[in-house]
Amino acid sequence: MFIWLDKLIRLLVEKVLNISMESRLGSSVHFFFYDTIKIIILLGIMIFIISYIRSYFPPERTKKILEKFTGVKGNIMASILGIVTPFCSCSSVPLFIGFVEAGIPLGVTFSFLITSPIVNEAAFAVLLASFGWKIAAFYVITGVFVGVVGGIIIGKLNMEKQVEEYVYEMQMGEVQIEKLTTKDRVDFSIQNVKDIIKRVWVFLLIGIGIGAFIHGWAPAEVLSKYAGGNNPFAVLVAVVIGIPLYSNALGTIPIAEALINKGVGIGTAMAFMMAVTALSFPEMILLRKVIKPKLIAAFVLITGIAIIIVGYIFNIMAYILI
């Protein structure tokens, strides 16, 4: 799909910049420019498509849909809606309050909150650009799996008392769902493309820059030995390291791509990325405003274990996915 871009960047590196593609510097420069252009192209396309779909699912409608589902069906629907519903640190608290106030079970609410940061249109676009459709599709499926399983277990623990009391006392009120025309949806999608790219381009360039350095200079044999698919502890270590960090999928995927190219197990890289996006320390601080430490600890433990399991599944299926 991007053979033309690969050839163009090779010409840029060798003919314009006069750097050999066989050198470490040439390899790094090619990785940086090629991945940046490729990711931005796919990012714009995917954000537009998913934003158009997202225009049908504002938070008010999402809440109304989730009110109709109970049990495991509710967890599954919450995770699926988490894919196409906007989620960021600024919206997590009001969404959580709105769901709880509407009587949506706590486990269903957590299925939504777990899946939303892990799986979104931006992550899918970058994964598609970096790894191809197999890994991108499997990542979405496993991301939903983590959300469903995590939500089900949290629901079974009956930890409603671990939600701050004021949350149950709040009355959000009914909000009229705005009716949009096709033009409104297109305008919304275009604006969303601009807003998201403007918000994430720094993370993207930093991630690609780190990935380019790893691609050109990191010792492949060392990474393969200690973080390859054959190391039984690599996934566990990757998740433990990823939890305290703060980034989004766009900043971590290029790093994961470079690590995989150097021999790091695909499951190790994917687990690291999921841990960074779903269990970041700043998100825990924000959620502390509405839930108590015991529930936060359960959330981190359950989601972390689910991500570790997904990492090992990725490693086992690597020969099919790559």
From TrEMBL:
UniProt keyword annotations, A-Z: Cell membrane, Membrane, Transmembrane, Transmembrane helix
Location of this chain's protein in the cell: Cell membrane
User: Which protein is depicted?
Assistant: Permease
Q: What's the chief localization of this chain?
A: membrane
TM segments?
A: 31-53, 74-100, 106-129, 136-155, 200-220, 232-251, 263-283, 295-321
At the top level, the lineage of the source is Bacteria
The family assignment reads: Belongs to the UPF0718 family.
The membrane-topology field of this record reads: Multi-pass membrane protein
- InterPro entries, from UniProt? DUF318, UPF0718_permease
Q: Which Pfam families match?
A: ArsP_1
